[in-house]
Write a structure and sequence with these properties.
Beta-Lactamase; alpha+beta; Phosphatase 2c, domain 1; flat; 6-stranded antiparallel beta sheet; 14 helices; 5-stranded antiparallel beta sheet
Amino acid sequence: MNGPSLRAKFAGTHALLLALSTLLITLVSQHLVDRELLRQSETATANVHHLVGQFVQAAYDKLQDDRQTALDTRRNELRQLSGLVRTTLEEFRRQVAWGRLTPAQAQQAALELLRKLRFGNHDYFFAYDRELTAIAHPDPSFEGRNLLDYRDPDGRPVLQDIRRIALEEGEGFLVYRWKRLQDEDAREKLGYVFHDVAWDWILGTGVYIDDIEKQMHERLAQMRERLRVILEDVSATSGSAFVILDLAGEPLIAPAASKNALPETVLHALAPDLLLHLPHEANPRPQRIELEVAAPGRGQERWLFHVSRFTPLGWVIVSAQPLAALEAPGDALALRQLLTNGLILLVGLLLASVLVRWMLRPFVTLAEHARALPEHDFVLPVAQQDRLRALRERYRDEAGQLADAFLRLEEALQQHLDSLTRTTAAKERIESELRIAHEIQMGILPKLYPAFPDRQEFDIFATLTPAREVGGDLYDFFFIDEHRFCFVIGDVSGKGVPAAFFMAVTKTLFKAVAEGEQTPGQWLTRVNRDLATDNEACMFVTLFCGVLDTRDGCIDYACAGHNPPLIHGKDSTLRWVDVPHQPAAGAMDGIEYQTCQLLLAQGERLVMYTDGITEAMNATGALYGEARLTSRLAHTPPGDARALALALLEDVHTHEAGAEPADDLTLMVLYYRGPTA
């Protein structure tokens, strides 16, 4: 099925670019208008918040000044009354000095006077001794009681504060809460106390100051009413609705309803979200909050709120404005621009269609030529090639360059097809030869198991997995005589065909020298000498070989730079075979390899491997390593040689997790069951 023509694509692309440009210009213009209107609105709102804050601060400062003045007046009155009491006490003491009264009579008369003394709003004097035992008090239940631990309704030890001020400072004022006689509620009281040193009395009095607070509340209510009128005027002119809430979200000052006002129920529901954005301290600029609001009769709308705090009174100033009102001018401008640009787009598309048709004529010819190429095996008739040459001569732009490229492409394609045919044939021949080499290499290794079913003294299993078609690892095992069993494992340096040849030569040499009566060390000495002779490629092979005496489990072994094997016990305990540190075979001549000896106990396994096992990598490059090798073996229960080898090989493949193998994987496990009876 044919797709859209290039002409249609050009026209469509042109239309798309124009449409996108139109849309982008419209959106940017709308955004700029909305942003400017929003900036102006926020500036005006911030100014109103600032002015309201200044008004509230000035009124609050005036209230505080008036309150302080009233308190100062009360303090002066208390100090003057206490001065009269002090004079009276001195008069009683003069009566004692003149002999008219005894000290006890004078103190008793003074206490009776204090009990009866009343002033102001039924306020009184009280007296305590140094230990805060009430000796004169208007509440008869307090008389004679020690009130050291007495606390006011707020849990404050008021009398301890009174004693401290009187005894340490001589006199002073304090504010506390106390219940009036015959009254249920505690109220704030301004107290004055002093120490009468002559009789060691603590005396004091106080006045309730709730009348001052009541007057302050009345003035605060007047201020709120004036502020409500101001906010109504501001809301009518600025387009925003202003309200004042308390910290519980209850409206304190709400102007009369307007088109932008939110009902008090909606404001109360939104209060937690609004108060959440309040700073902990007073902020000179209001906090901006945008919320989805569902108002009765208006549906779901986005509203812009600005919130600021007046900390002394716990007031929150909130302004609210629907974003639709701010965005309306930008939306109207966007619609006008969209209609205008749409008309321009339509005219541009008509002109572009004509121009594109004219510009694409040479490309239509090139398209026909390209469709014909496969039908003629990429070799077109001379007439069609002449048409391309004409296009190349006529047009000096991209059309001419494309025609020239077609001509060159045909030439290059023909050459490439010839080369590809030859390369494919050669690759298939090499792959076939590598498959045959793999089969030959695997064929020279023992691969039938159990290898010696008639021998009950031991069991052996080996496996080799090349990293490529052919590899450089090797293993072999065979009997030298009736009781001596020889085995070898090795790893040739490098990979691929050279390593495979070197592996075959090594295996052949080892089997040839191992048929004699010499020791494993002497065998490796001879193999090293033969491999090092004329070894211009400087290849080498690591080898571990041994001879098991099936009668007692004794193994004579030698090592040429190979990984030390592990002995896996009947209880899965592990120990490394101690191998001499001698170089790999083939690297240099003249090395005498040492023969060592170990004893396999009945039920033990000798685990031999190449470094492809421990250096197997996963996708992240992490090695399998000796730690995981020993851990896996330690957790593998006793079993035959095959089960142990395959369990270990499966764990290596699990570690690789599908990663490309980096080296040949070779394992050989020799299981010594013990001598036959």
